[in-house]
Amino acid sequence: MADSTKHPTLTIDPHTHVADLPFIHYQDNTLFIDNVSTKTLTQTYGTPLYVYSKNALLANYRTYVASFAPLSNVQICYAVKSNSNLAVLATLAHAGAGFDIVSVGELARVLKAGGQAQKVVYSGVGKTKNDIITALNAGIGCFNVEAMSEIELISQIAGRLGKTAPIALRINPDVDAKTHPYISTGLKEDKFGISHDNAIDAYHFANTLPNLDIIGIDCHIGSQLSNTQPFVDALDKIIELIDTLHTQGITLDHIDLGGGLGVRYVDETPASVSEYANALLPKLLDLQKKYGLGLHLEPGRNICANAGMLLTNVDVLKPTEHKNFAIVDASMCELIRPALYGSVMAVIPTDLSTIAAAKVWDVVGSVCESSDFLAKNRTLALNVDDTLAITGAGAYGFVMASNYNTRPRPAEVMCDDGSHRVVRERESLDDLWRGESV
Ligand code: LLP
To answer: To the nearest whole number, what is the mean pLDDT of the chain?
Structure first.
């Protein structure tokens, strides 16, 4: 459980914090995102409010493209789950991205946003018959298959539809990603993928079935990884398999290394995308030379986390003998990461000219449970009605929001070099009970 002892007092210098967040800066003491003042944003749209920078999204995507440029046949498949707003997807689709999906709902979003089915890879541990039919009919680029029974099911359904299904097997390489256990996916006790020990048998099994085109091999070991070593270890284990498969006559077109590279929320020091690329490229170039393999990657967080923020108003200041509580209009409903994982996310003022004595605050929502906190033990100078920004909230923010306590989900706004527009309306109460009856 989240525990205040795990949250030592934290003082974040706002200027230093934003210094390496692209397209987020202070100007005349006011926080700006993509050249739009947060004051304008809150006055126009209210709070709580998700705001995104189109140019940061594009820059982050292009960093991946540039870092892996020495390799040919690279497809960056943005992980839709991290932020699935249609405008985010459309921005990336337009820039040439492919997409990693985990549901046919995400597939529908990609197509609606103008993404190409051919550039979609479909991961997910529990694909149903209908999911497979929908994805085959849409003509997706690759199923990342996670179980022996799924291989059989895809083969049967493809046969029935008179189609050939492109597949990669998602291998669980049993590598410790050294991240939060809830977001680690590559250990043998995790539910994901086909175990490394069974991988060769699984390929031979797939090879005996009709209507399958075995095109790749895939792994995704976890999320918010700081170090490149677990990625390299996973790659080594996958290379062993590729070598073995090759000697046994099974040749592939691509290797998919999943997503997972972490970001700085507060003071983490994750490898940069270019360090990540440099750690992997020698081995990937070798694979390309030997077997002609292309590369798929599935980054989510790294593209959108620091391209977005959650803006929230301070509604109530409640100092007590034990703790000072700043009650804000966002909560675990709008941003569940702190409550769910004990994540530490930066909370910074949007107006640095505010005059108040700095105190140590727990920044909490007004939801009826004590897990509802956004930040603990933060040194902040606060007044009622200040607006705070929670940075890093562009990923796994809105997408994990709920309507618990009958709270409408916030609006989402896309900023683009001084302009801004709503890309999802704030929910109304009518939205919340649509489909219900008395
Ligand atoms: N590919 C697959 C198969 C995945 O399961 C994931 C994330 C990704 C790619 C993208 O990983 P990323 O590059 O974003 O790390 N809600 C959690 C994160 C859950 C990640 C689940 N899978 C959080 O807020 O930290």
So the answer is: 96
What is the tens place of the pLDDT at every residue in 204-220? 999 999 999 999 999 99
Same domain for 225 and 118, yes or no, is yes
The answer on 101 and 244 residing in a single domain is yes
Find the CATH number of the domain harbouring 130.
3.20.20.10
Cα(396) to ligand 1 centroid in Å equals 9
Residue-wise pLDDT tens digits, 97-127: 999 999 999 999 999 999 999 999 999 999 9
Give catalytic status of residue 77 as yes or no. Answer: no
Q: What is the DSSP letter of 189?
A: T
The one-letter amino acid at 32? F
In a shared domain, residues 163 and 135: yes
Give the model's confidence band at 355: pLDDT under 50 very low, under 70 low, under 90 confident, else very high.
confident
**Residues 331 and 355: beta-carbon distance below 8 Å:** no
Beta-carbon contacts of 160 under 8 Å, excluding residues fewer than 6 positions away, are none
pLDDT at residue number 181:
80
Count of domains in the chain?
Answer: 2
Instruction: Kindly state whether residues 40 and 86 are assigned to the same domain.
Output: no
Q: How confident is the model at residue 184 (pLDDT cuts 50, 70, 90)?
A: confident
**Binding pocket residue ranges, ligand 1, CB within 6 Å:** 79, 82, 100, 123, 183, 185, 220, 223-224, 258-260, 298-302, 337, 396
Residue 5 domain flag = no
Range of the domain at 166: 70-298
SS (H, E, C) 321-359: CCCEEEEECCCCCCCCHHHHHCCCCCEEECECCCCCCEE
89 and 157: one domain?
yes
- Contact indicator for 382, 317 with CB cutoff of 8 Å: yes
- pTM passes above 0.90: yes
In this structure, are 33 and 75 located in the same domain? no
